[in-house]
Amino acid sequence: QVTGNMPSSPAMRLQNGDGKNWYLEAGDVITHVNGKAVQTEAEYRAAVLGSPKAITITVIGGRDKKRYDFSAQLND
Q: 35 FRET partner, CA 20 to 30 A, in 26, 56, 58, 67?
């Protein structure tokens, strides 16, 4: 579960399919990174660090409980 954001993290640069920026908020739950399930912060960090230039993140919104798929560039 997301508890906060670091200003320079990939989470601050997410985009959804319509090209609009979207920001993770406290209460959102990251369930997958690049299609691989993650359950802990350590698994999330390992998945992000193992990604060369871009990641896709699946999130369950804390407020609406809907599934969202986002992408982020890591090395721009």
A: 26
Distance CA 69, CA 28 (A): 12
36-73 pLDDT per residue, tens:
999 988 898 898 888 878 888 898 988 889 998 888 77
CA distance 42 to 76: 24
CB burial readout 7-38, b (16+ within 10 A) else e: eeebbebbeeeeeeebebeeebebebbeeeeb
Length of the chain counted residue by residue: 76
Q: Which of 4, 1, 9, 14 is nearest to 57 (CA)?
A: 14
